[in-house]
Amino acid sequence: MSRVDVKLGERAYTIRIERGLLEQAGETLAPFARGGRLIVVSDENVWAAHGARLAGPFRVEAAIVPPGEASKSWAELERLVERMLALGVERGDHIVAFGGGMVGDLAGFAAAIVKRGCGYVQVPTTLLAQVDSSVGGKTAINAGAGKNLVGAFHQPAAVFIDPLVLETLPPRELRAGYAEAVKYGLIADPAFFAWCEANGAALLGDDVEARLHAIETCVRMKAAIVGEDERETKGRRALLNLGHTFGHAIEAETGFAMLHGEAVALGMTLAFRFSAARGLCAPGDARRVEAHLAAAGLPTRLAVGTPERLVGHMAADKKASGGRVPFILARGIGGAFVDESVALAEVAAFLAGELAP
Ligand code: GLY
């Protein structure tokens, strides 16, 4: 069992990572029930596969949303908030976000705004949520203009991670989550990237030890970064957006047909190729990134949109300012940095080359 602390003063919390943790859900979640009742937000798939496992000395009130990114919407937020109000949620209460990144983002945002904020607990059930999105308190829904454009920083009170729940995760979702794990190696931990090259196939098979190692490595790094730069104002947390500016544009362009992690994989490949094109990193590093992500079954070649459309999505990014978007580029594997000097016209020229037949 591992415990990782997110050191945020009065908003500090602990992440527990443990094989079989869900079997102890009654004990771990009981402190978050009130009046014998526990409110759980989940999606239809997760609830059907694992809902019965949340049994304990409490009555579960489940708020179930349709699976998929489309549920990060105003309509589902409204439905969820009204349900929470009908259930009489109070400020001191905690709701449980039991699902992947979509459920965590939606439930976390609902918790941030109901009665100006109640508590919530993350019980992530996808690899993507376990290695990244359940930690750090970013919550959001999507808007017509783009992904995650309406949201709040709202830290959970605890995160409970059980790698065994991944056994029912579809392989495509596992691969997509793996991209977010690889991201941590690419940002600042070349040894972890080398570990991924050696152990990625086992992790994507059914090796629970490999999954535990990856989850713990990523979560430790994320907890440290969030502890230093909770609100992404100091240039540290922004590094976690490696591949995301390209990725969000690609997701928007595909109408979210591509999973977030798939778009991030492609976005990270583009970020490394762009870095190599600017003379920042060795072309061999970019090739190594592409080779590993492709070997993991992730997309690495751009085949959607036009440079103008993709750059148009980037201009709508919440981090855009005055026609520029801070890009996370790299001086090598493990050497990511924030580059504020990139003009969108330069990105468009690069994308034109990527899209050329
Ligand atoms: N997923 C990036 C962050 O939490 O900052």
In short:
45% of the residues lie in helices and 17% in strands. By secondary structure, it is of the alpha/beta class.
What attributes characterize this protein structure?
four-stranded parallel β-sheet; alpha/beta; 13 helices; Dehydroquinate synthase-like, alpha domain; 11 strands; binds glycine
How would the blueprint of this fold be written?
Blueprint: E1 2-6, E2 13-17, H1 25-29, E3 37-43, H2 44-50, E4 59-65, H3 74-86, E5 94-99, H4 101-113, E6 119-124, H5 127-133, E7 138-143, E8 146-153, E9 158-161, H6 171-188, H7 190-204, H8 208-228, H9 244-253, H10 260-277, H11 283-295, H12 307-315, E10 327-330, E11 336-339, H13 344-355
Parallel strand pairs: 2-9, 3-4, 3-5, 5-6
Antiparallel strand pairs: 1-2, 7-8, 10-11
Helix pairs in contact: 3-4, 5-6, 5-8, 6-7, 6-10, 7-8, 9-10, 9-12, 10-11, 12-13
The structure holds glycine (GLY).
The helix/strand order is: EEHEHEHEHEHEEEHHHHHHHEEH
Within the CATH hierarchy, at the fold level, what is the topology of the largest domain?
Dehydroquinate synthase-like, alpha domain
Hetero groups in this structure are: glycine
Q: What gross morphology would you assign?
A: globular
- Report the CATH architecture of the largest domain: Up-down Bundle
Low-confidence stretches: none
SS summary, helix count: 13
Question: Strand fraction band?
Answer: 15-25%
The fourth-level CATH homologous superfamily of the largest domain is Dehydroquinate synthase-like - alpha domain
Structural write-up:
With about 350 residues, the chain is of the alpha/beta class. It folds into two domains: about 1-170, 3-Layer(aba) Sandwich (Rossmann fold); about 170-355, Dehydroquinate synthase-like - alpha domain (Dehydroquinate synthase-like, alpha domain), CATH 1.20.1090.10. It contains 13 helices and eleven strands. It has a four-stranded parallel sheet. Helix 5 packs parallel to helix 6 and helix 12 packs antiparallel against helix 13 (about 345-355). The longest helix has 21 residues, at about 210-230. The protein is globular and about 60 Å long. The termini are far apart. Glycine binds near residues 132, 133, 136, 138 and 237.
